[in-house]
């Protein structure tokens, strides 16, 4: 009789740990906190929905953090769409950050940019209306 009580206790602890692991897998609190302290606005619900849409939240949040630190405003839904279309989100954001920082610091002007996913082309528009094009990224 005592063995069944101990066995039941061990099973309850193992089941509780498994349930906690499942909850923490689908609700990535650490990733949400990392985004929060990096000043990236993303909700826990969006992180959970990313997993259900088969988009790795670490890739999207990492790209959003890198873009934020480079001074680029990135949108989560556009990054997810780029990932789902087969794009390399981390490489694109890294290239955007490098190009955006280099061009902005070189010219010393306000710079806006547009990334054309289909044409794999980046266009920068300077404050005076001049357009610059970058045709490929690495």
Helices and strands in order:
Elements: H1 2-26, H2 29-37, H3 44-52, H4 57-70, H5 76-84, H6 89-107, E1 111-116, E2 121-126, E3 131-134
Antiparallel strand pairs: 1-2, 2-3
Q: What is the straight-line distance between the termini?
A: 67 Å
Uncertain segments are none
Multimeric organization: single chain
- According to DSSP, the number of beta strands is 3
Strand order of the largest sheet: 1-2-3
Total helical elements: 6
Describe the structure.
The structure is a single chain. This protein is mostly helical and 138 residues long. It contains six helices and three strands. It has a three-stranded antiparallel β-sheet with strand order 1-2-3, covered by helices on one side. Helix 4 runs parallel beside helix 6 (89-107). The radius of gyration is 22 Å and the shape is elongated. It starts with a helix and ends with a strand.
Any descriptors?
mainly alpha, three-stranded antiparallel β-sheet, 12% strand, 138 residues, 6 helices
């Amino acid at each position: 009789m005592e063995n069944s009580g101990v066995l039941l206790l061990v099973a309850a602890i193992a089941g509780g740990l498994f349930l906690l692991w499942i909850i923490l897998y689908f609700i990535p609190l650490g990733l949400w906190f990392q985004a929060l302290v990096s000043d990236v606005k993303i909700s826990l619900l969006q992180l959970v929905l990313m997993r259900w849409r088969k988009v790795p939240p670490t890739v999207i949040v990492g790209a959003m953090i890198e873009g934020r630190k480079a001074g680029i405003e990135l949108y989560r839904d556009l990054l997810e769409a780029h990932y789902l279309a087969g794009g390399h989100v981390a490489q694109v954001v890294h290239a955007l950050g490098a190009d955006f920082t280099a061009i902005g610091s070189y010219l010393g002007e306000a710079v806006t940019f547009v990334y054309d996913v289909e044409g794999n082309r980046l266009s920068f528009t300077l404050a005076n209306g001049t357009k610059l094009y970058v045709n490929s990224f690495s």
